[in-house]
Amino acid sequence: MMGMDRPVHVSLSTTDMDEARSFCRKLFYGPLQVNPTGDVSGFAFSGDVVMLGPITLGEISYGSDIHVTIADLETAYHVLAPVTGTLRSRHRGTVVMADPTRAAVYRPVGDIDLEWPGSCRLLSVKVERAALERELDATLDQRIVSPLLLGASFDLIDGPGRTWASLVRLLLAELRHADGLAAQPRMASRWRDLLVSGLAMTVEHPYGEEPAGMQGPNRPRTVKRTLDAMHAEPWRPYTANDLAAIAGVGVRVLQEAFRQHVGMSPLTYLRRLRLDGVHAELSRSDPWQVSVSEVAYRWGFTHLGRFAGAYKSRYGVPPSQTLRERR
């Protein structure tokens, strides 16, 4: 558990663009650039922010269309979860249309570019880099890559994302008031730890037995047996018939079970597992000692052209760029 901290609540409502910029830079990131993109007559910034140890929670809106840019976050991971409207987010080559059904996730490394319409009000959650990495490391009990290889977004309507977003809303609402349980340091620290650990179990990542959000305690044995085989030897040239034989059922039965309990077909899951493995290895490898092709072959990809296309579609950049960045 992290040490106890007292929450600090700060809020601002203003029609002054410079005052809004200063507020966000002070509470979130110094290099943050905020510029209007259209009519500013309706500009009305509203920021309600609570700082609690390694986390900063805020509900933010601008009232008119703006463009936000920031270079590497460096010291933090960040999640933006719109309450209203749609935010166009670009980070590390991946574009996410964040709205009340989907949150955008940012790693410490990589420029961020946001097209933020006046209709968009969102929850902004900043988590110090060390806190989330320590939590994920403890949860998985294994050595992880830093910065974490997180997915670019997650679902806010179903599964763990829904619960995590509800926790953020509840904690922010409670921390705004000085007379609630959350204002007590011991309770605040427990809620804060719950938010960090919840995020570690919500975001998509290639660590552990399965990507986050894909666990399912009620899966049938046929699905579990197939997943175990794929995770044990992801490089094997499995066919649909091979996986069905491992499961002990027909191909169509296994495919339907996977769609129901995993959300995708067995071969789609296997490709995703392999891509995440390649991505993790390229991110921590020395470009002078390994090549993209040998890593791809090691994870079971035999057609480099199709592999490169699938990799860029999933991560927004070609595999060679990941290897060069080593971040």
From TrEMBL:
Residues 224-325 form the HTH araC/xylS-type domain. Keywords: DNA-binding, Transcription, Transcription regulation. InterPro entries: AraC-bd_2, AraC_XylS_family_regulators, Homeodomain-like_sf, HTH_AraC, HTH_AraC-typ_CS. It comes from the Bacteria. SMART domains: HTH_ARAC. One of its GO terms (molecular function) is sequence-specific DNA binding. PANTHER family: HTH-TYPE DNA-BINDING TRANSCRIPTIONAL ACTIVATOR EUTR, HTH-TYPE TRANSCRIPTIONAL ACTIVATOR RHAS-RELATED. This is Helix-turn-helix domain-containing protein. The lineage of its organism: Bacteria, Bacillati, Actinomycetota, Actinomycetes, Micromonosporales.
